[in-house]
Amino acid sequence: MPSDKRTYASCRVGHLLVGVDVDAVQEVTAGGELTPVPLAPPVVSGLLNLRGQIVTAIDLRRSLQLADRPAGQAAINVILRADGGSVGLVVDSVGDVLDVHQNDFEEPPGTVSGHLRELITGVYKLDRGLLLVLNTERVMEESNGD
Amino acid sequence: MTPATGIGGRPIELQAILKDFIVESGENLDQLERDLIVLEGQPHSKETLASIFRAVHTIKGASGFMGLSKLGEVAHSGESLLSRLRDGSLVINPAIASALLALSDVIRAMLVQVDQTGYEGDIDCTALMERLAALQESSAVTSAQSTAAQERALAPVHDTAPTPAQDIAPTPAQDTAPAPTDTTRQTPSGGNVRVSVEQLDKLMNLVGELVLARNEITQLSADQTHSALVGTSQRLNAITSLLQEGVMQTRLQPIDTAWSKLPRIVRDCAQQCGKRVQLEMEGKDTELDRTLIEAIQDPLTHAIRNCIDHGLEGPAERIVAGKPLEGRILLRASHESGQVTIEVSDDGAGVDIAAVKRKALDRGLTTPEQVRTLSDQEAIQLIFLPGFSTAATVTSMSGRGVGMDVVKTNIEQIGGKVSMHSEAGVGTTLRMRIPLTLAIMTALIVKSGDEQYAIPQANVLELVRPDVDGGRNQIEMIGHAPVYRLRDALLPLASLSAELTPERRSTRVPASGEVPTIVVLEAEDRRFGLVVDSAVDTQEIVVKPLGRHVRGISLFAGATITGSGRVVLILDVPGVAMRAHVVARDRRAITRSTSADAAPASTESLLVFAGPDATRMAMPLSKIIRLEEFPRTAVERLGDRDVVQYCGGLLPLEDIASFLPGARARRRALDRVSDTLQTLVLTRNGRQVGVVVDRILDTVEEALDEMRPALTDGLAGSLVINGLVTEVLNLDAL
Predict the structure, then answer these.
(1) Which pLDDT does position B163 carry in this prediction?
(2) Shortest Cα distance, chain B CAs vs residue A105, angstroms
(3) What does the pLDDT read at residue B181?
(4) Which of B206, B352, B407, B608 fits a disulfide with B299 by CB distance 3.0 to 4.6 angstroms?
(5) Helix axes B404-413, B290-306, angle to 10 degrees
(6) Is residue B267 located within the same domain as residue B221?
(7) Co-location of B378 and B513 in the same domain
(8) Which domains, ranges and CATH numbers included, belong to chain A?
């Protein structure tokens, strides 16, 4: 793969199209009951049984400070590999795996401020819209207690 | 790098032998270090000396065979020194012991190199060899050694020389390990097999999965009428349990494995700090899973260093404090309700709570408001915050910016909990509670709201269903604290749903109509009841650790997957108790309890309450019939007395202040307090009377014979309860 090309798994979260580095993705699962964890940080939406392994699911809508998913709307878990076990990101839906060119990349503009800016590393300008590259490390840290 | 000849392309067979050599030498060195410490205490133990000699000799011999010439040379110079010790012309002293321990370190380092690269590497050991050689001469030439050591060195010449060490019969006074090297090396391993740890881990994981599959099958077959299936499922059930037990057994090791390295650490560390320390161990045989043994090694080491560096005072301060010069560190391990408790306690100065608070503020770890509301016990726990370090000076040992938070994180990673208890001037105890195994336990599944939770069966004493309407066995309130009368003892209650959803804490007791269940639990010697919506059943569960995002929540010990595939959180009972404040009493530092263990004092349940001027008072619970709360508006006047209508009659009310002796006696208007009057119902002269107190605080178990005598009549005396002076009322004099 030439170095100016990158591959991201695209997912929808609210009105945003978010890209997650394909290498970080372990698998994608639909459904599955989540067990809520009382007293956990709000971004933790629950625990998931992934073939006998217990995975903490983080609601990306909460991380990105978007409105909560309407009740009854299906959600998809994007399971990421992480230090000390896997972590699930709860998104609205998962789209194609996209090959993007480094030419289309830009740092997040200065007007993108606050929380969102901290969680994305940059933006790819695609024909069908903007792909926000998620800083998965950061997303997983954010939920860690504070 | 010294390319020792011919090591690189070893044939396969030799590779395998080399591996064994490395493992065995590591064990030999462990033994050697233990023996050296013993020998320091008993310089003339020939048996110990022989064991040390043998260990070094074995390494020397084998390294020659393996072509590890450098390793052989170093071992040889150690052996020469040891032979001087053995023939009695030298006696062990701190300098020799340190040099031999350094030898052990160098050999270890070389073995690591050999293991990783196949070569001994370029570890420079000339200095060590010179040091060992110089020590050999030290008895002949007057050296910088202490004269005391010299004098001792002369003594043994008379009683040794001709007897070869091997022939000596064991000295009867020997309390050390009776040279385990002998038994393991000389008797052929009767049917024992070395199994790699990975292999055992794999087996354990598979058994864990098998238990889950078994649970699912059991659940599925429960709905079946097919008798063969039901039978097979039952057999599967039984076999799985046996298998699980068997595999778990193979992984258990005595905790001594983790402890064996500590005497050396204590010695080195104490020497560095200029302190004298005695390490005692209790419960060496306590067994736990080997993965856990490995995991507790570092936290233990750190905790011990911390004790020596910060906990114990220097010799001068100890003399001033009237303590023995030698500081004492006690390591204690025991099984307690399906968990292993490991305590590290010292008899040092205790944690300086004011200093801890100050430091936490300085480092911005907490706010002045928070600090003000902290109890001493809570303040001590600030030590576990990341970035906290109590030592005033940075020392080479424990002041490297890492502190007790590392201990806490490590222990939490294996599903354990850490707490610290301290008493000023008496000592500090660090308690680590870790699961016996990371694997499997029996748990009671309960329901709260829509969710299920697992409670380790080991903590569960019984289940009770309270009466709902009226009835003697209903849930009653003392202030805002619900209690239940369990066989005439008050059981403090916590509501699971209230603890899980603190924002709705006000609804602590479930709405009437639904009959809740009280799970009577025991945590750290205290009983309390947990109110849940219902108990579902008891299951074997496989404990899985929580991800890092939720690991910090003290209510949960882990999670599991039930037969239906759902994730269920496992409650940490002591964590729940702590959060619900039902465990109010600090456990004393064990240094004190061990000395007083001989005659356990008889204890009595006391009700602690606040009296006039915010004084703390207590009264034996046995003398109290009921605890009641009356609205202020219910108080009526009858002559010059306050009364309330109670159980179809009138109950006279008296202010607690009017019972106080002498000048403190006075009458206050009963409506002074709050809108509700907290009342103790007692019998006096055959009649019931309600004594109004300012606030009911707690019930505690205390030994009354520790009571200090009263200064005035009307008081039985005073006691220190939870670190606060509390007056005990003499009921008969009231």
Answers:
(1) 39
(2) 32
(3) 39
(4) B407
(5) 170
(6) no
(7) no
(8) 5-142 (2.40.50.180)
Domain boundary, last residue among B435, B462, B480: B435
Angle in degrees, CA B148, B149, B150, rounded to 5 = 90
How far is it, in rounded angstroms, from Cα B362 to Cα B390?
Answer: 12
Please choose, from the candidates B660, B681, B679, B662, the residue with its C-alpha nearest in 3D space to the C-alpha of residue B670: B679
pLDDT digits (tens, 9 = 90+) for B151-188: 444 434 344 334 343 443 444 443 443 444 333 333 33
Does residue B182 form part of some domain? no
Residue A40 with chain B: CB contacts under 8 Å:
549-550, 553
Give the range of the structural domain holding residue B566, as residue numbers without chain letter. Answer: 440-579
Q: For the beta carbon of residue B541, count every other beta carbon within 10 angstroms.
A: 26
Residues B157 and B300 in one domain: no
| Residues B148 and B272 reside in one and the same domain | no
Q: Give the separation between CA B449 and CA B433, rounded to whole angstroms.
A: 29
Provide the percentage of residues in chain B whose pLDDT is more than 90: 4
B258 and B218 both lie in a single domain: no
Residue closest to B457 by CA, chosen among B486, B436, B485: B436
With a CB cutoff of 8 Å and minimum separation 6, the contacts of B94 are B40, B149, B271
d(CA B390, CA B428): 14
**Closest Cα to residue A11, out of A24, A28, A23?**
A28
Buried b (16+ CB within 10 A) or exposed e, B465-492: ebeeeeeeeebbbbeebbbbbbeeebbb
Rounded to an integer, what distance in angstroms lies between the CA atom of residue B164 and that of residue B169? 11
Q: Considering only CB atoms, which chain A residues are within 8 Å of B532?
A: none
User: What is the CATH number for B465?
Assistant: 2.30.30.40
A8 close to A19: Cβ distance less than 8 angstroms? yes
3-state secondary structure of B169: coil
Read off φ and ψ for residue B235, nearest 5 degrees.
-65, -45
State the Cα–Cα distance between residues B317 and B425, nearest whole angstrom: 11
Shared domain for B445 and B415, answered yes or no, is no
Residues of B in contact with A85 (CB under 8 A): 547
Report how many domains make up chain B: 5
How far is B214 from B236, CA to CA, in rounded Å? 7
Tokens, residue A22: 């394909």
A and B: number of Cβ contacts within 8 A: 68
pLDDT exceeds 60 at position B134: yes
Under 8 Å between Cβ of B718 and B728:
yes
Instruction: List the single residue in A with minimal CA-CA distance to B497.
Output: A38
Residue B654 belongs to a domain: yes
Is B495 inside a domain boundary?
yes
Which of B392, B415, B435 lies at the terminal end of a domain, its last residue?
B435
Token code pair at residue A132? 């926000």
**B547–A87 CB contact, under 8 Å:** yes
Q: What share of chain B is helix, strand, coil (3-state, %, to 5)?
A: 40, 25, 30
Contact B547 A84 (CB under 8 A): yes
Task: Report the DSSP pairing between strands B649-655 and B641-646.
Answer: antiparallel
Mark yes or no for CB contact B567/A47 under 8 Å.
yes
The predicted pLDDT at position B161 comes to 38
CATH of the domain at B376: 3.30.565.10
SS3 B486: strand
Q: What is the rounded CA–CA span in Å between residue A144 and residue A140?
A: 7
Does the residue B183 lie in any domain? Answer: no
Query: Interface pTM (ipTM) of the complex?
Result: 0.84
Q: Are B437 and B340 a contacting pair, CB within 8 Å?
A: no
* All residues at 6 or more sequence positions from B119 whose CB lies less than 8 Å from its CB, including other chains: B1, B2, B3, B4, B7, B8, B113
Tokens of B376: 């001493």
Distance of CA B321 to the CA centre of its chain: 27
Q: What is the pLDDT of residue A89?
A: 92
Q: Are residues B269 and B373 in the same domain?
A: yes
**CATH number for the domain including B137?**
1.20.120.160
What value does the mean pLDDT of chain B take? 75
